[in-house]
Design brief:
It is a single chain. Helix 1 runs antiparallel to helix 3, helix 1 runs antiparallel to helix 5 and helix 3 crosses helix 4. This protein has 148 residues and is mostly helical. The protein is built from six helices and no strands. Helix content is 69%, strand content 0%.
């Protein structure tokens, strides 16, 4: 047995330059993940320093946001590496972002611009992820497609 890894076989989808749509989808997913990390860290710091109303709730919320950031960050890394598994988590992230954006839009506060930005990013990323060029680059086959 060799300690070397077997390289993944090259498919027609993995040769050539990465499509721009795939790169943009990865960037949007990464930005969402980074926003979750920053938001979670801010809530966590406020909870630890005692500036929050309820310390335990702030710490729990901050840790939860940081853990949730793993999904879009891993999806972004997979998209950049043209891993077919990464499309699912990326789509799930965008679908989860839509109700959050809607709730931000319903607020009577400074959260409304955030809701607009999140909604635009989520819809844009979804369009990029279901695009035929993106699915082809990831090697995702549609229903009824014959496997080779």
């Amino acid at each position: 047995m060799s300690a070397e890894r077997n390289p993944a076989p090259e498919t027609p989808e993995s040769t050539g330059p990465r499509p721009l749509r795939l790169t943009l989808a990865a960037v949007l997913a990464a930005l969402e993940g980074l926003a979750l990390v920053v938001g979670g860290a801010l809530i966590l710091v406020l909870g630890i320093t005692g500036d929050a109303d309820d310390r335990q709730q702030a710490v729990t919320g901050g840790v939860t946001l940081i853990v949730l950031a793993l999904l879009p960050l891993l999806a972004a890394r997979g998209l950049l590496g043209r891993r077919s598994w990464s499309r699912g988590p990326a789509v799930i992230t965008q679908i989860m972002a839509l109700p959050v954006a809607y709730n931000l839009l319903q607020a009577d506060s400074m959260a409304i611009p955030g809701g607009i930005v999140l909604g635009v990013v989520a819809v844009t990323a979804l369009v990029l992820l279901v695009n035929q060029e993106t699915t082809r680059a990831l090697g995702v086959r549609g229903p009824g497609s014959a496997s080779e």
